[in-house]
Amino acid sequence: MNKTITPSVTSIERNWFLVDAKDKTLGRLATEVASVLRGKNKPTFTPHLDTGDFVIVVNAEKVQVSGKKSSQKLYRRHSGRPGGMKVEKFESLQERIPERIIELAVKGMLPHNSLGRQQFKKLKVYSGSDHPHAAQSPVLLNN
């Protein structure tokens, strides 16, 4: 009889991947990144453990959306105070904080619990093409 083997925390090998978001569709990019963060691309994937890899996303300001989403897609946040709802369109958020767009798209595709928060910490997003993680020698993620 075959036994199911749960990988130990010390045996999990974490790699670094680099993704260029230039001219990529937001949702398709986010699903690929979320899959790697969760570890679904590995044969040792375990749903209740963090077996995923680190992902660096560069050129976040050049990500694309299809249709009229650039003028119609809304991002909402609330300060917690009465009347504290702030609404911002995709275009203005892309000019102001382009990293936030990819972060929110990926965060929504991760588990909504402490495991998802732990996996989200392995995502690094940068608006330009430069990143400070050259020492980790990231490998280009095949899309």
Residue-averaged pLDDT = 96
Strand content: 15-25%
Please estimate the helix content: 25-40%
Strand pairing plus helix content: what structural class? alpha/beta
Strand order in the sheet with the most strands: 5-2-1-6
Task: Report on the biggest sheet.
Answer: 4 strands, parallel
> How would you spell out the order of helices and strands?
EHEHEEHHHEE
Separation of the first and last Cα atoms: 37 Å
CATH-defined architecture of the domain at 15-66 and 98-129: Alpha-Beta Complex
Q: Any idea of the CATH class of the domain at 15-66 and 98-129?
A: Alpha Beta
How would you describe the shape? globular
Q: How many E-type strands? A: 6
CATH superfamily of the domain at 15-66 and 98-129: Ribosomal protein L13
Kindly report the CATH topology of the domain at 15-66 and 98-129: Ribosomal Protein L13p, Chain: A
Low-confidence stretches: none
Give the helix tally: 5
Rg over alpha carbons: 17 Å
How would you describe the overall organization of this protein?
By secondary structure, the protein is an alpha/beta fold. A hairpin with a 6-residue loop joins strand 3 and strand 4. Helix 1 crosses helix 4. The longest helix has 13 residues, at 26-38. The chain has a domain at 15-66 and 98-129: Ribosomal protein L13 (Ribosomal Protein L13p, Chain: A, Alpha-Beta Complex), CATH 3.90.1180.10. It is globular, with a radius of gyration of 17 Å. The termini are far apart. It is built from 5 helices and 6 strands, in the order E-H-E-H-E-E-H-H-H-E-E. The strands form 2 sheets. Strands 5-2-1-6 form a 4-stranded parallel sheet, covered by helices on one side. Strands 3-4 form a two-stranded antiparallel sheet.
